[in-house]
Amino acid sequence: MRKLKAKRVVIKVGTSTLVYPDGSINLRAIDQLAFVISAMRHRGREVVLVSSGAIGVGLNYMGLKQRPKAIPEQQAVAAIGQTELISIYKERFAVYEQKIGQLLLTRDIFVYPKSHHNVLNTFDALLAQNIVPIVNENDTVAVDELDHETKFGDNDQLSAIVATNIGADLLIMLSDIDGFYDGNPNGDAKANLLPHIETVNQHTYELAGGSGSRFGTGGMVTKLKAAERMLNADGQMILANGEDPSIIFQILAGEPVGTLFG
Ligand SMILES: Nc1ncnc2c1ncn2[C@@H]1O[C@H](COP(=O)(O)OP(=O)(O)O)[C@@H](O)[C@H]1O
Ligand SMILES: N[C@@H](CCC(=O)OP(=O)(O)O)C(=O)O
Fold first, then answer.
1. Inter-CA distances, 81 with 53, 58, 76, 218, Å
2. If you measure from the C-alpha of residue 210 to the centroid of ligand 1, how many angstroms do you get, rounded to a whole number?
3. Which residue lies with its CA nearest to atom 23 of ligand 1?
4. Do 242 and 177 touch, CB atoms closer than 8 A?
């Protein structure tokens, strides 16, 4: 059994958890997430959800099969999809009588003392009122993550930046893969799951490949950067498969699922 500190927890869900490969929305996963997070709240944990999916949901809403090439059009899809995504969350969380709040952030916000202060105040005020903050990167402003060519950050890293700034003990990163492997399982059938990684170093990065899905952006490299950030702040991160978000209950019970960084 793993020993975890998990009073304040950040959960990050990737597009691959929220949108099926055919582009339709995985309402079951969203409902499960709302259920699990509401149950965590009721057990006295403080939970922040960092959710991707604006573009994936926007594409579905607009009946588009492909992500548009031009950045402004991607931004438009994200703006449309974000409203739809948050409405679905609001509806699903309401079933469990759990209120939510929406925060659209950029990674650099924590660099500036004034915006850093304002953002932390907002998190504190929401958590103090037992409201679940739901965060996404502000895709209108943070263009680089939308461009598949320039991947110098994304919600993986934003979730770790949020987690370290609000003093979260644990970052639970849900993806479409069971954990971190010693090779990209998407091409290497012999790759093995690594249950525990204590430090992230050059060798770890050499094992990481890009995104396996049509909609995901970060792949493993950004997840490792997030893990490194958590470790540097004396926190922990668990990477696990979000196909059934109730896996979070197993994680919190200390069961050895996914990969523990820390
Ligand atoms: N060493 C590795 N271990 C596990 N997955 C890896 C590894 N290298 C590359 N990947 C790929 O990273 C994918 C997860 O990243 P991504 O598609 O960005 O997901 P998300 O949408 O959840 O952020 C996996 O499905 C897998 O194909
Ligand atoms: N902000 C973008 C998400 C980008 C992103 O980080 O996607 P993912 O790799 O699925 O976590 C959106 O909501 O579509």
1. 8, 3, 8, 19
2. 6
3. 14
4. no
Tell the burial category of 215 from Cβ atoms under 10 Å away from its Cβ (0-12, 13-18, 19+): buried
Residues of the chain with pLDDT under 70: 145-153, 210-218
Q: How far is the CA of 256 from the centre of ligand 1 (A)?
A: 20
128 C-beta neighbours (distance < 10 Å), count: 9
One-letter identity of residue 129: Q
| pLDDT reported for residue 150 | 44
Average pLDDT, the chain: 92
Q: In what order do the strands lie in the sheet with 8-13?
A: 100-105, 132-137, 46-51, 8-13, 170-175, 236-241, 259-261, 196-197
**Both tokens assigned to 10:** 């950040």
Q: Is 219 annotated in some ligand binding site?
A: yes
Which residue out of 11, 30, 55 has the highest number of ligand 2 atoms within 8 Å of its CB and is therefore the one to mutate?
Answer: 55
Known binding residue 235? Answer is: no
User: Which of 173, 213, 247 most suits a substitution to test ligand 1, by most atoms within 8 Å of the C-beta?
Assistant: 213
DSSP 236: E
The model carries a pTM of 0.95
